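B., you asked whether I could sanity-check this one before it goes into the benchmark set. Here's the sequence:
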Amino acid sequence: DEILESVLKGSGYTVDDVRAAGGSVQVETQMMQYKKWEKGLLRLDGQPGFDTPSGKFEIASSILEEHGYDALPIYTEPGESPQSQPELAKRYPLVFNSGSRTNVDLHTLHHSVPQLQQERPVPTVMMNTADARERGIENGDYVYIESKRGRVGMYAQVTDAIVKGAVEASGMGGGALGSDAWRNANANRLTDLSRYDPISGFPVYKALLCEVVKVEEGDKQDLSGSWEYNVDNSIEEDQVMQRIYLDHNATTPIASGVQQAMVKYMEHYGNPSSIYAAGKEAHVAVENARRALAILINCTARRLIFTGGGSESNNLAIKGVAYASDKLKNHIITSVIEHPSVLNTCKWLEGQGYSVIYLPVDKYGRVSPNDLKSAITDSTCLVTIMMANNETGSIQPIGELAAIAHERGVIFHADGAQAVGKMPVDVEALGIDLLSMSAHKLYGPKGVGALYVRKGIALDSLISGGGQEGGLRAGTENTLGIVGLGIAAELSLGNLNGLQALQNLRDRLQKAIGDIIPEIRLNGHAEERLANTLNLVIPGVRGESLVLALDQRGIAISSGSACRAGTPEPSHALMAMGISEDDAHCSVRISLGYENTIEEIDRAVEAIDEIVHNKGSQVRFVSCR
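And here's what the prediction gave me:
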C-alpha cells in the first residue's frame, strides 16, 4: 500500500479508488495543444512567447545556476573542430562521434544479453563510402580511429547512411564483458577526460577531430546487413492478406481490369503523335480512353484534355482562365474548404495582382448560393468550387452555383477529383464550364488526370511545347496512364450502380460506431454527401493516434490532422465549418470503396471498440511526429 500511495501522490486518486475501479485508474489529460507560445497560452499576461525573463525559449534550473551556467541554450564555440582548429583538421580531418545512434550503439554491458551479443559481436565505426574509398578501407576492415590523444581499434562499417566527413563509433567499450575486440575498444581513449560536463559527468566531445586508418595486418569481419538492433514490426503473411483499406478518398487501389490493360500497353511504346503503325496504335488507345471518360461525365471527347493529375488540372483551369481573361477581369471567387491545389493557386495569383474572395461555408461544409451571388462583381472572371469535399464528403449545390455564375457571365470551374466515379456527374445538366478529374481517385493509376473544357472557353496553356492536347498541354502523352484512366472510367459506369449498397455499408458503419461510442458527432451533411464517406468526431480520442492504433491491426483510415514536417495542424476544412481545434484533432475520416464487405466493416468496428475502451491503450497520448 505504501508503494501505491507513493505512485498515486498528486494524482487525486487513493489506493481505495484503485481497488474500487478494478485495479486501473487514469488521469484525464488535456488535449494536445500546438504552438502554445504563439497563442499566449504560456504566459500569465496572455502575450505570445515563453514565461521567461526574455520571453524566449530558455532552460533554467537551480543546478545550472549552482554551477555558474546561464539559462540555456547558450552557444559555445567547440574547442576542437574544423572551424576552430583548421591546422589540426589537416591531420585529423574527420569529425568523431560515439553512441549518438541508439539503433546501432552498444555498451559492453549489453553483452550479457545473448541476442545483442550475436547481433553486434565486434565494435564498429560507421564511415561514409567516399571517405572509406579515399583511405583504401573496405567494409569489415580492421581500422584504427586516431585522435591527438590516442587510438582505438574497431571494424569499419562502410555506408552512405552517414554524411561525408563524420564517423560514428560504437560507444563505451573497454568493459569486462564481451569479446577481446570489445574489451580493447574504449572510445574514451580518444577524448580529453579532463574536459567533462560538470552536471552529467560525461566527456564533452564538442566536434572532436579524428582520422581512420586501415590496419594492414588486421583481420576482417563480415558486416553484411544493417547491423541495427532489430525490433520485429513485421506482420505475418496471413495478417497482410487480411488488411482492410478504408481510405478511398486518399487514393483507390488500381482495379484489376485497369492493371491488365496497362500491362498490355507497357509493351506498346509508340508515340501517339507518330504516323507509323506503333504511333497510330498508341493514338487509338489514347482516343479510346478519351471517349470512355467523355461518356462518364456526359460530354464529347474533344472537350477533354489529359493532364498529369487533379492538381495540374486545377492549375490549368484557374491560371488558364485568369491569363486568358481581359485585364479588367482580375477577380476570382473560391471557397475556404478547397483542395490545396486550388487554394494555393489562388494565393499565388493574389501575388500576381489578382483579387480573390474566399467564400465561407456553413456548419455542414456547404457554400451558400446567396453568398456567391453577393460576391460576384463586374471584374469576376472565374468561380471555382469543389464538387464534393475530400474530408467530409459534403456535396456542393454545383448546378445552382454554376447558374448564378452564368447569370453574370462568369466562367464556372468545379474540382471534381473526389466526385467523379463516386457519384453521377453530368457536366451538361450541371452547366459546368471546367471540371478537374484525377485517375487515382476512381481506381486508376496515379500521375494522370483530365480537364473538361466546355466549347468556347478560352484558356492559356501553362506548358509550352509540341502542341499536344489541343495546344493546352504540351508534352508526349502518357499513353500508359491514359489507358488506365480510360478503363477506370469504363468500370466507374458499372460501379455507380452500386452506390446504394455502398451507402448502406457506410450507414451500417456509422450506426455501429455510434452504438459503442454514443458521443460521436458527424462532420458534414447527413444527406448531401458522398455515399462512401464518414467523418466523425470521437471526443477525447486523438484522430492520428486512432489511425496508428488501427494500422497496427491492419486497418487503414485517416485523421483530421495533417502531419507534415513534424507540425500537425488541424484540417482547414473542418475548422472552416466552425469545428473547434480540439474536435478537429479528434476527427477521423473513413471512406469506403466498392470492394469493401460487411465483414470488413464489422471487424473495423470491433477494432475501434477495443482501442477506445481498452484502459491500457495509449491511443489518447500518441504524439504526431
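One thing to flag: Confidence is low (pLDDT under 50) at residues 229-241, 562-567, 618-625. Otherwise nothing jumped out at me.
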